[in-house]
Hints:
The protein is an all-alpha fold. The chain has a single domain (3-314), classed as Orthogonal Bundle (ADP-ribosylglycohydrolase fold). It is 65% helix and 0% strand. It is built from 17 helices and no strands. The longest helix has 23 residues, at 3-25. The protein is globular and about 55 Å long. The protein binds ligand AR6 and magnesium ion (MG). Ligand AR6 binds next to helix 3, helix 5 and helix 15. Magnesium ion binds at residues 53-55, 90, 268-269.
Amino acid sequence: MTGDEILLRKFEGAMLGAAVGDAIGAPVEGFSGERAARLYDERGWKMVSGRYTDDTEMMIGVAESLIACRGFNGEHMAMQFLRNYDGSRGYGPGTEEVFRILRRIGCQRWREASLSLFGGEGSYGNGAAMRVVPVGLLYHDDVNKLVEVSYESSLITHAHQLAKEGAALQAYAVALAVRSDTGGERLKMLRALKEAPISSSYMEKLSRIEEILRMERHDDEVRKRVISELGNGIEALNSVPTAIFSFLHTENFVESIKFAISVGGDTDTIAAMTGAISGAFHTVSEIPDYWLTDLERQSYIRQLADNLHKLWKEM
Ligand code: AR6
Ligand code: MG
């Protein structure tokens, strides 16, 4: 396989990996890790329905807008989010409130809508990080642009600094996974992540990741520390580092998703973010067919990945 073919498979792996993680995590969202893992162990880790949630719907919107505008355009992306919105996909209440504001004031004022939420501090939910995959792909070789577009695309719905940083960190993890040769050194990636422009709260989490990775303990103890020190919540700070850990701790795509599910909590989003990094690193070839065939709109998601790859080559 040529370098370009591998790169294409990494783009497809990231987008389809995110959607697969989302669809597997959705039916067990809010479960304890033990209960979630037990349900899937009993099913032989087959998908329940293959239906994705807001995570993938919004990731599709980010990709569609980047492709249509050949780069970031806030007004267009906000409009794309509204066009794609399906209220049955489980959106966070903050994001739905932003959509109501945008419909009222118009998408040309996309910079303002998210600023009024939560007493004016904006949302620190993981809703900006969960959808950022296409940004990580398109700008995988340009960190400054990657951070800029991560922040700007977050601002449409998430104005809080921790939400924007979470998105930039997740996009950067995807970018590093795209850049690394399959089989590359995982701890090297963690060191590179520490170079990202992130505040002390995220830096502290990255140090915890390193500590837990160094543990030579039983899986259950690792899981317990991940839940208590990295988190399994809907806040970007308590889920992006958990997704990064789920990738770093495991050897292949399937194991990374299984680990993410076994942490419980916001399983759809944590597994989606894990799947994006893991899929980018291991390529689409490692995502089992029995997951891909059950995934809703899998050929459309693959097509978006192909178009992002084409756009990257033309830029
Ligand atoms: N102050 C207090 N609580 C907050 C704040 C804040 N500044 N920011 C967020 N929260 P939201 P999302 C709490 O609604 O990030 C879906 O299942 C608050 O309870 O912006 O788009 C997705 O799939 C708020 O409702 O949603 C994700 O998994 C919540 O955090 C998840 O929800 C989430 O923030 C988050 O989606
Ligand atoms: Mg969701």
